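Consider the tokenized backbone below.
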């Protein structure tokens, strides 16, 4: 069972049983059944649950308004088969009576909703009249059970009658006894008596009346009436606003259960084609509703519950096999929210003739031809200019390629991917396909073209292509190319891990010394051994240090950018510090830190690289605390002074954290008085900041209520 938020108990309201807070809808569905849960939740959303209260022993007592007003009690009992789980048990004065009726589900849903909103539930009075109603209903069930006891082999398990919910085994036995009595009662009646009884029941129970109307329409070959009713319900439910407030929990989730029921009946009676037509509209309008919903997937779940019956209808319909496949593909193309899920999987995964898949491929090819992307003024497609259109086109071409493979027309896939790569920028798909086909030379050629064409507008695709080329070089043991890729990553975004990766690759090539020297020089100066330079006629070319031992593939050059002349080239101090710490060189740590501080003070710059200055200072102080304790204290003291100029709880907490870091270091230097004096001075200077004083009180463990006279 999944955990739920607890509900704080209030006077007059018993603390909730923790097991209620662990219930999931899967648990409730296992108890009552999916359809009953759907109906019960609908009752709860319609606010039919009244007078909800909780007894001292944790049972829920309420009334639920259905065709009449029913008394309901729901409780939790330990599961006899598991020490960790509990089972839900209920009793209701409705005709079902036993565990798991929709009225009991509605009570559970209402209580769990209150728990999620942290609302209290009042205590149930011991003399509440609802208990007496339930006692009477329970006694009736007991008498039914007594009549069947002589045929029951489980007498030892019989429970003593109790107004509380019975165990699951006893409830099931009572239900069987009730069912047997009802069946015997019906069989004993004459035809006229049965007719009179059914007429009376249809007047009392609208749902039964509706079932009879549907049955009559179908038996009289009047399916058009049921289809019209399903169409009306479809129009109604998909037009409902779907929303949910994350603050209050209020909202509306469309209830698709009635539409689902009608579609199921139509399929059962052989009207699959009608359900297919309804299904097309349902997918179209339902997806639009899901897209406009502001909830956490509840609407998508409701809609998704209808998908299995829709695709069951497609499978049983008179559509040709190719049309059935296209229905499933169209549903997936319409679905941007994963509503379809696995519902279409059986249809798409079934065995189909190659001719059917070929017909699907031809249809998808026609669609692709009609979805030509826009072109620029020069006539080239605007790669990256319209992500939505290109994404939809990539989906169509993806289904087309699958259809071609199933139709044994795989030879056409490469040409398809080649054309699409230049139209939409989907080079990564083409290159992946060519490598899989062992066409490595073609893959490398297309990857180089793709990198050049996508690096500006679609850098993510260019990066993926570069990664594919690196993987190909690894497979071919081309370690100089692998090392060139590692160098490209390191010089682009330097870091300790990137440096280590570069050195590992250089070792395999056999040139670690030269690579290390120039890589460290880059970190110390900010000047890369491979860089773009602008010539006098404003053209750019790559300049490679003559001592650089690794190749520079042309496709990597196309991703390089010239240095920004607005900012001076600087050392990568943060990386140098990180590497010195890893190598346990505290003197170098402080040397690079001091250079960074001087540069930052002179230029108000972070000194190269995107990092948190406070985090860097903390890292350095922690790294040199053992070898250079006084320097560590000085760094922490500088952070204290800087944050003292800021007013706010966050700054106060930060000052306190640095003071706590200084305390053990100064103690080790036998300078406890220095720490005490610093805290005293801060107290004296900022004594008019009471929240700050409260935070400083915690440094020496001063209780909030302690009386020490004036602070400071």
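A designed sequence for it:
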């Amino acid at each position: 069972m999944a955990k739920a938020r607890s509900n704080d108990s209030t006077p007059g309201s018993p603390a909730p049983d923790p097991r209620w807070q662990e219930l999931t809808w899967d648990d409730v569905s296992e108890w009552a059944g999916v359809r009953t849960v759907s109906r019960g939740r609908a009752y709860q959303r319609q606010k039919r649950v009244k007078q909800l209260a909780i007894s001292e022993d944790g049972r829920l007592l309420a009334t639920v308004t259905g065709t009449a007003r029913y008394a309901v009690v729901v409780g939790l009992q330990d599961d006899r088969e598991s020490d960790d789980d509990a089972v839900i048990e209920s009793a209701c004065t409705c005709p079902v009576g036993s565990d798991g009726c929709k009225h009991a589900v509605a009570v559970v849903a209402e209580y769990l909703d209150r728990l999620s909103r942290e609302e209290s539930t009042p205590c149930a009075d011991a003399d509440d009249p609802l208990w007496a109603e339930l006692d009477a209903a329970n006694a009736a069930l007991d008498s039914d059970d007594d009549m069947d006891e002589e045929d029951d082999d489980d007498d030892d398990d019989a429970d003593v009658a109790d107004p509380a919910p019975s165990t699951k085994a006893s409830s099931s036995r009572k239900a069987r006894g009730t069912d047997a009595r009802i069946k015997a009662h019906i069989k004993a009646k004459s035809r006229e008596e049965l007719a009179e009884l059914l007429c009376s029941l249809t007047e009392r129970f609208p749902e039964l009346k509706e079932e009879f109307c549907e049955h009559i329409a179908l038996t009289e070959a009047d399916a058009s009436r049921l289809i019209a009713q399903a169409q009306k319900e479809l129009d109604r439910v998909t037009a409902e606003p779907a929303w949910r407030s994350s603050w209050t929990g209020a909202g509306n989730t469309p209830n698709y259960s009635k539409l689902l029921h009608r579609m199921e009946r139509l399929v059962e009676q052989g009207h699959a084609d009608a359900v297919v037509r309804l299904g097309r509209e349902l997918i179209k309008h339902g997806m639009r509703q899901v897209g406009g919903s502001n909830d956490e997937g509840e609407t998508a779940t409701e809609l998704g519950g209808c998908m299995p019956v829709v695709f069951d209808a497609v499978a049983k319909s008179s559509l040709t096999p190719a049309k059935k496949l296209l229905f499933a593909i169209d549903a997936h193309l319409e679905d941007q929210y994963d509503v379809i899920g696995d519902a279409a999987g059986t249809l798409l995964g079934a065995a189909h003739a190659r001719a059917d898949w070929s017909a699907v491929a031809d249809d998808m090819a026609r669609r692709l031809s009609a979805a030509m992307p826009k072109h620029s003024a020069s006539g080239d497609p605007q790669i990256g200019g319209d992500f939505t259109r290109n994404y939809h086109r990539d989906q169509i071409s993806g289904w087309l390629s699958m259809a071609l493979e199933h139709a044994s027309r795989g030879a056409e896939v490469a040409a398809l991917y080649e054309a699409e790569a230049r139209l939409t920028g989907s080079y990564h798909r083409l290159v992946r396909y060519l490598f899989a086909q062992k066409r490595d030379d073609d893959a490398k050629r297309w990857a180089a073209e793709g990198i050049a064409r996508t690096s500006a507008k679609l850098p993510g695709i260019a990066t993926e292509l570069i990664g594919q080329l690196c993987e190909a070089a690894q497979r071919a043991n081309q370690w100089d190319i692998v090392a060139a890729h590692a160098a490209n990553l390191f010089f682009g975004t330097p870091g300790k891990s990137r440096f280590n990766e570069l050195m590992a690759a250089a070792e395999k090539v056999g040139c670690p010394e030269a690579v290390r020297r120039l890589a460290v020089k880059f970190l110390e100066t900010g000047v890369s051994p491979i860089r773009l330079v602008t010539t006098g006629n404003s053209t750019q070319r790559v300049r490679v240090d003559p001592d650089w031992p690794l190749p520079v593939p042309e496709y990597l050059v196309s991703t390089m950018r010239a240095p920004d002349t607005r900012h001076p080239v600087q050392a990568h101090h943060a990386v140098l510090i990180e590497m010195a710490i890893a190598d346990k060189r505290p003197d170098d740590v402080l040397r690079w830190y001091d250079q960074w501080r001087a540069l930052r003070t002179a230029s108000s710059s972070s000194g190269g690289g995107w990092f948190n200055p406070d985090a860097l200072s903390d890292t350095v102080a922690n790294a040199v605390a053992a070898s250079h304790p006084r320097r560590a204290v000085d760094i922490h003291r500088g952070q204290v002074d800087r944050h003292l100029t800021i007013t706010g709880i966050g700054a106060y907490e930060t000052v306190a954290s640095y003071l706590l870091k200084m305390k053990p270091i100064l103690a080790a230097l036998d300078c406890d008085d220095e720490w005490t004096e610093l805290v005293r001075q801060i107290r004296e200077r900022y004594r008019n900041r009471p929240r700050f004083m409260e935070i400083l009180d915690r440094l020496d463990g001063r209780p909030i209520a302690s009386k020490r006279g004036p602070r400071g």
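The first strand starts at residue 49 and ends at 54.
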